[in-house]
């Protein structure tokens, strides 16, 4: 596939990088997450901001709640929807302290982070 310029991208076509980011998001198993930086590293291209931009613009049709900030904080403005998904999928969460803004839980990154392997916590290979 060749990289498409913004002028040649029609309404039904995504830029190649966006397609690749969304494909990774679709592969993350329920109950697991990857950070924006993890996705960029796995692709070997771009960085966390580029992945975040793709997710903001095009991520609505994929499990967007599985691509997260490195600190495990819930996506601002989408906390309730994300939390519903995390609870339904059994994503490990950390209880918010009383001092936390809004008392929102965070994702337990040590337990929920997925490395792109076979899905098991001990799996360390790429897909």
Given as residue ranges, the uncertain stretches (5+ residues, pLDDT < 50) are 1-11, 119-127
Following the backbone from N to C, one meets helices and strands in this order, namely HEHHEHEEH
Helix content: 25-40%
- Name the overall outline: globular
Based on CA atoms alone, the radius of gyration comes out at: 15 Å
Tell me the total number of β-strands: 4
Category by helix and strand content? mainly alpha
Structural description of this entry:
With 127 residues, the protein is mainly alpha-helical. The protein has helices at 16-27, 36-43, 48-58, 79-89, 109-112; strands spanning 34-35, 67-68, 93-94, 106-107. The strands form two sheets. A two-stranded parallel sheet has the order 1-2. Strands 3-4 form a two-stranded antiparallel ribbon. α1 (16-27) crosses α3 (48-58) and α2 (36-43) packs across α3 (48-58). The chain is globular and about 45 Å long. Mean pLDDT is 84; it is low at 1-11 and 119-127.
